[in-house]
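User: Show me a protein chain along with its predicted structure.
Assistant: Here is one chain, sequence first, then structure tokens.
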Amino acid sequence: MGTGGSVADINSEMSIPSASTMKLVTTATAFQILGAGYRFQTRIMYSGSLDSVSGTLNGDLYIVGGGDPTLGSRHYNSEGHQTDFLKTWADSLKSLGINKVNGRVIADGSLYRYDGVPSGWVWGDIGNYYGAGPAGLTIFDNMCILHFNTKFGGDTTELMCTEPFIPGLNIINEVKSDNSGKDNAYVYGAPYSTDWFAMGSIPRDKENFQVKASIPDPELVAALEFEKALSEAGISTSFAPATMREVSKKYPQFVKPELTELLVHRSPTLSSIINIINHESINLFAEHVLCQISVRRSGYGSTTNGAAICTEYWSNKIDGTGLFMTDGSGLSRSNAVSAKFLVDMLVSMHSSGSAESLKASMALAGKRGTMSGLCRGTAAEGRVYGKSGTMTRMKSYAGYVDTTTGKKLAYSMIVNNYTCSTAQLTKWLEALMVKMAQY
């Protein structure tokens, strides 16, 4: 790898969609621009004045989002502990002597400009948990759970509730029950819309079958959940919670007042977040990282701007003609990248100060992440690092190899529109991984 010489090459300059291996471009760029130790910050602030004698805050309490994707995330909190951070915030305010807010909670996710989801994401994805879009104020992985009862006989299902509660959400339930034993339900709905549709099928005879969907307005959920935590801590508010998006719509000339900081919540390190992105292929985290690259360079979060920054960054280092980037996760089919670009980028990263961080974030054949089931018992087990990508008629892998003979390789494999089964294609690609490991 140090010489930059090519070992094997078939159509390496052809740019085609690669699914989640696009996450390598996002995360490699983030290591370079943001740094492995970077932390997102969420600020609790207030307008008006604080009467320390009575413990009354005469103004509004703001949650100012900094793009942190980990607030209440299932990847950092065990079941039942997703709201612990809210309780910590409320307890901290209580310890500061605050007992009453003569105002309301306002959730401010304006850092990412309310873009909803990246362009190129399809209708069939964006209502589902893996199609949750990035937000300046994200909570619970921007994911809600739909609870179904299918113990009625026939194919009838009852949608009992959503968790967390989302006021005004109207879900038209067309989900049927069957004997397949599988979750084949899908949720359709646009960001900020309260009219959603649930379709498909789920197993029969279940009292509480759970289907994961995306939250249409995470900013609103954050405001509601924080107000609830405040109430439980004995801090009252005078008015219903609000969001910066709705306030700005209702009052177009609204200017956010001068705010005073009460506390700052810092996320886990970027390195920790990227490990989850590349081990487990989490779309939402990848999109947040891309938007935060935009924040660092331009002061606001944007998928389009973040992608342009990534493209420019690598075009100044290597031949960037093979990269066409429209999101950070690879969920959009309008992305395209060449195997040559990915390998050139990986070689460049190998000589950077972030080399070990990027490699450690990758899945490992036979050992961990999305490649844990590959190449077990072969020379490739524990030697082929990578990021996998899978979508309909699309399969890809890219990463590094520590060969049995002591060589270091960078590789990329991208296949589109194959006619065999995905299982058969995966076996062929595994065979290539074994050959690489033995090189």
